[in-house]
């Protein structure tokens, strides 16, 4: 009973508590708040949906960008691999091509200095001579007598006059120079065609070289391409001249070849003694901030010194002296009041050790040093040995030998052809080199005067062979057959042969012009010779041939 009563009371209380009339204000706003919440929830849902769409779009864009970058990276990697493969194939092809070219040239050339049996070579050469009327002995003899000898008779008198004036000028130059600071100038030496007696074309120009040395306590130390140092192929034939103190170690200390570090000093050379002020080296005509002699600075110094020397002695002479060429500072011209003039070249040179090989600053009227790598690179000239070799060989040849006559005729024909078709890469130095090779290869009796025609043909055919192979080697460099009587430095005899035609291998336009000029000269040879030859009666010609 009490339990049942308790249950009834609990039920009534619960009903009263949950009846809405007991809480009218609180329960009256419930429907309104529910709609508001639902509306906000929908708005929130819509904003979340839009945000989700935006994020999905950004993710899609990022994925597309990533795929594009990956694709571009793949393309770049493939292109790099392709380029590497292409570079490898290109390098391999170039190596194969060079090996084939070297083999072909060696196969064609054989031993370049073994030309003692060139009769066989001459038999297969001479393609350019087909259809060319070569002058006979009588015509060549008449041409040489009338055209060559008639124009070279006064060369000796001109050489004597120029040498006397040059000696006086150099003596005045020594007097105006500071013996303690300026370069010391030695006596001049005559070289070239005027002193080898084969120059034929006017105006006659004497070439004089003037050795000079630095003031004490300095000295020149020369380095050549064949002295063991690494020189590029395009610098063969060149060398550098270092200005050093005479008391410096010739072999050089190890401190000059290694980096000792900031906290280490050489016990033999202090930092003060190893570095000299740049102004001191520039006063010694060195290239800026180096110890290497600068050819441009030397030529400027020499031109100023010559001008001062002439101002000192000009009152003694009844002519004027001037520089004739702007690009050749040593090209001088003597002008007489009568209007006549005499040209000569005075070029400073540096002696290589104790030999007659010289480093020359530039070549007047020549393209031999047209592409000098820099002003600190000096070309080596063997002109003194060339003159000495011709004199030595001339003593063993028959009387009135034709070797000089061949060179004079060929030089004359080449000069005339260049005046018609313009200059080419072929120079008189190339022609003289051909003669030097043949002088060494042929026996003395082959240069008798009656064999002028045959030897001239030999020179032309030898030159044709060299043009065909693009190889004309320097006579002295790498030539072990140079007579020992010359006292030629052995270091140059043991060097690799120097090809004088090497610059034309890559310059096809100049090479083509050179070959065309040679062929034109052959075709015009008879016409050029007949133009300067007095008519020879047929009976006289036949008489000469019978003899």
Automatic annotation (TrEMBL):
<protein>
    <recommendedName>
        <fullName>Inositol 1,4,5-trisphosphate receptor-interacting protein</fullName>
    </recommendedName>
</protein>
<dbReference type="GO" id="GO:0004860">
    <property type="term" value="F:protein kinase inhibitor activity"/>
</dbReference>
<keyword id="KW-0539">Nucleus</keyword>
<dbReference type="InterPro" id="IPR024810">
    <property type="entry name" value="MAB21L/cGLR"/>
</dbReference>
<dbReference type="GO" id="GO:0005886">
    <property type="term" value="C:plasma membrane"/>
</dbReference>
<dbReference type="GO" id="GO:0005640">
    <property type="term" value="C:nuclear outer membrane"/>
</dbReference>
<dbReference type="InterPro" id="IPR026250">
    <property type="entry name" value="ITPRIP-like"/>
</dbReference>
<keyword id="KW-0812">Transmembrane</keyword>
<comment type="similarity">
    <text>Belongs to the ITPRIP family.</text>
</comment>
<keyword id="KW-0325">Glycoprotein</keyword>
<dbReference type="InterPro" id="IPR046906">
    <property type="entry name" value="Mab-21_HhH/H2TH-like"/>
</dbReference>
<feature type="signal peptide">
    <location>
        <begin position="1"/>
        <end position="20"/>
    </location>
</feature>
<comment type="function">
    <text>Enhances Ca(2+)-mediated inhibition of inositol 1,4,5-triphosphate receptor (ITPR) Ca(2+) release.</text>
</comment>
<keyword id="KW-0175">Coiled coil</keyword>
<keyword id="KW-1003">Cell membrane</keyword>
<keyword id="KW-0732">Signal</keyword>
<keyword id="KW-1133">Transmembrane helix</keyword>
<dbReference type="Pfam" id="PF20266">
    <property type="entry name" value="Mab-21_C"/>
</dbReference>
<feature type="domain" description="Mab-21-like HhH/H2TH-like">
    <location>
        <begin position="404"/>
        <end position="477"/>
    </location>
</feature>
<feature type="coiled-coil region">
    <location>
        <begin position="38"/>
        <end position="72"/>
    </location>
</feature>
<keyword id="KW-0472">Membrane</keyword>
